[in-house]
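Checklist before submission:
- one chain only
- standard amino acids only
- sequence pasted in full

Submission:
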Amino acid sequence: MFGYNAVLLDMETAFLYGKLEEEIYMEIPSGYKEVYQEVESDTVIKLQTAMYGLIQAARQWFKRLSDVLITLGFAPCESDPCLMYRIN
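Returned file contents:
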């Protein structure tokens, strides 16, 4: 109608491997405890990268994506910063 070109992407593994800016620790998952009997029940592990279900995962992924898009000439929309645009 207006002659705009739009591109939509769906990334199935978008939240995996995101870089974390803060230290995050979690309890060891139950399946891991069953395999490794020597692990104590109160042991925690430090996350090296983001994972699904982590509150910071979506924020870290979008930060990384927007940094790349900005270097490619895109800019965030004033009314919705999640919407990126580029004028050719």
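Reviewer check: The chain has a mean pLDDT of 81.
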